[in-house]
Amino acid sequence: MTKIWMGLIMMCLSGFAFADNCDNARNAYDDIYCSNKIYASADAELNKNYQLLRAKLSSNQKTILKRSQVAWIKQRDAQCSDEAERTVFVNCNLEQTQQRNAWLRERLRECDTVGCKSTALN
User: Fold this and answer.
1) Is-contact 57 65, C-beta < 8 A?
2) Which 3 state secondary structure label does DSSP give 82?
3) 3-state secondary structure (DSSP) of residue 20
4) Which of 47, 44, 24, 43 is CA-nearest to residue 34?
């Protein structure tokens, strides 16, 4: 009985290990898993960059950034989902998040080199 359990556990673990090999995804499910994994990483980076930028801003600039971020989220959600179908397009979310990360990194560079510009935060 122990051998059967060990065999089942090993089969499950090998399936997870293969799913992590995103260069050689076997099927659409692996593609979805890998896309979600990449999106989760980009989203974590987005949150980190947002907090790093926020730490450099004045109180008024933080308000501007927050409004900008909320507007971006609404725009991303409208573009990357279908509420009627209750569907979210992961690749669209990933692309939008990567673009926003680039925008946040550029704002961080500006703050570090020439100072944080309120007009650039919109």
Assistant:
1) yes
2) strand
3) coil
4) 24
DSSP result, 42-53:
HHHHHHHHHHHH
Distance (Å, whole) CA 104 – CA 117 = 13
Dihedral sign from CA coordinates of 103, 74, 95, 19: positive
pTM for the whole structure:
0.78
pLDDT at 101: 98
pLDDT digits (tens, 9 = 90+) for 77-111: 999 999 888 898 988 999 999 999 999 999 999 99
pLDDT at 66 over 70: yes
Q: Read off the amino acid at residue 55.
A: A
d(Cα 30, Cα 112) in Å, to the nearest integer? 40
Determine the Cα–Cα distance for residues 87 and 29; give it in Å rounded to an integer. 16
Q: Within 10 A of 40 (CB to CB), how many other CB atoms are there?
A: 12
Q: How buried is residue 65: exposed, middle or buried, by Cβ count under 10 Å (0-12/13-18/19+)?
A: buried
Q: What value does the mean pLDDT take over residues 24-39?
A: 88
